[in-house]
Amino acid sequence: xxxxxxxxxxxxxxxxxxxxxxxxxxxxxxxxxxxxxxxxxxxxxxxxxxxxxxxxxxxxxxxxxxxxxxxxxxxxxxxxxxxxxxxxxxxxxxxxxxxxxxxxxxxxxxxxxxxxxxxxxxxxxxxxxxxxxxxxxxxxxxxxxxxxxxxxxxxxxxxxxxxxxxxxxxxxxxxxxxxxxxxxxxxxxxxxxxxxxxxxxxxxxxxxxxxxxxxxxxxxxxxxxxxxxxxxxxxxxxxxxxxxxxxxxxxxxxxxxxxxxxxxxxxxxxxxxxxxxxxxxxxxxxxxxxxxxxxxxxxxxxxxxxxxxxxxxxxxxxxxxxxxxxxxxxxxxxxxxxxxxxxxxxxxxxxxxxxxxxxxxxxxxxxxxxxxxxxxxxxxxxxxxxxxxxxxxxxxxxxxxxxxxxxxxxxxxxxxxxxxxxxxx
Length: 425
Ligand SMILES: Cc1cc2nc3c(=O)[nH]c(=O)nc-3n(C[C@H](O)[C@H](O)[C@H](O)COP(=O)(O)OP(=O)(O)OC[C@H]3O[C@@H](n4cnc5c(N)ncnc54)[C@H](O)[C@@H]3O)c2cc1C
Prior knowledge:
- This protein has helices at 3-12, 22-27, 37-40, 56-69, 120-129, 146-152, 159-162, 223-233, 248-258, 278-285, 312-323, 345-362, 384-394, 410-422, and strands spanning 17-19, 49-52, 73-76, 93-96, 103-106, 111-115, 132-134, 169-176, 179-184, 200-210, 216-220, 242-246, 267-271, 299-304, 328-330, 334-339.
- The protein is of the alpha+beta class.
- The chain has 14 helices and 16 strands.
- The protein starts with a helix and ends with a helix.
- A hairpin with a 3-residue loop joins strand 15 and strand 16 (334-339).
- Bound molecules: flavin-adenine dinucleotide (FAD).
- Flavin-adenine dinucleotide is lined by residues 31-32, 74-81, 85-86, 97, 116, 138-140, 144-145, 147-149, 151-152, 154-156, 195-196, 200-201, 290-291, 369, 371, 401, 404.
């Protein structure tokens, strides 16, 4: 899009905060992921304009302008996702929802009603004051947004007891080209985990629990024993809501980065159900900073998937073989590999992630938060055809975050090819 078009786009969006300066467009052209450089040649990640709506009316106006001019729309929360969901595939309008960050609490119904741009930890601090708590939140909670995590459909702290965010959404208010609709629980799967390819999340109603002081405790044990312990404490009647297996190599990297002397042994961290201990408290405090080890890279390649609990030891052993010794492993399963994007080995690390995804599927697990880089794998979702039909109906010109979740263009083909190659790395 040339500068004259950008100017007219800016005037069409008059009344809504917008910025088409080169600096701003560059800042909004990335998220936390850094793919190997050659991949970026296949996308137009620099948007034409960045807008910051402050109301539902603003969002509807943006969608109207996008529809009239056939311009793609890429919603963005805090851009902490590592799969490229908030990166434009074909330029267009980036919609930064961070100004729509209000929320209220229905204490009787134990429901949070939050705008998409509300930050999880701001919400949690207010809930605690009211004697309530989120049931689940991502470890990126200090910065990530309600809309972003719902759109990714992730798992996090609390998921052992309460499931993923998908299991805790009571309703959504979404906007698409036909206007605003309230979607009840039975239909939220059309939006949760689809990276906004079917609509923009304006508001979410999220289930809450009563607040209780966190009591984290940690014990050293093998992955096999950790799985047995987790098996014995999982279930809705058990007070344990979170379990993180943190392996010795991750702890070793934490020590290197933080200058601490945590015991470099495989460790299981549980929260609630027992009195806390000092190792538990130290690791729990650190739960928000899994990416500190990036300093050792200086880049980081990450992997996330769900694996059936009884297959986790097998996955862990195989993942160790694939990634080599230099990785950090936190069960549920998040895996981090320090890397260096300036070197060829960085591309190999990306290939290893694809290999791990195949392994996860082989063991009965599944990926989530497909974004841009993993859209080629969305076809494995059981309801893919149904979702695709809905997408075509709601977004016939494919303007809602194109290339996210639903495969489009060169990236999915490249990734499928890379996955074949990954067998030999
Ligand atoms: C330190 C760290 C820890 C993390 N821990 C976890 C974890 O425990 N569990 C986990 O699942 N993930 C985790 N992640 C990944 C990521 O943080 C989460 O997925 C996060 O919730 C994304 O939120 P965001 O606001 O940053 O969204 P963004 O990255 O900005 O966006 C993610 C996707 O959602 C879409 N989107 C954003 N807002 C909206 C909206 N209002 N409507 C529709 N679509 C929208 C975007 O287009 C994009 O496709 C972690 C990341 C980091 C950096």
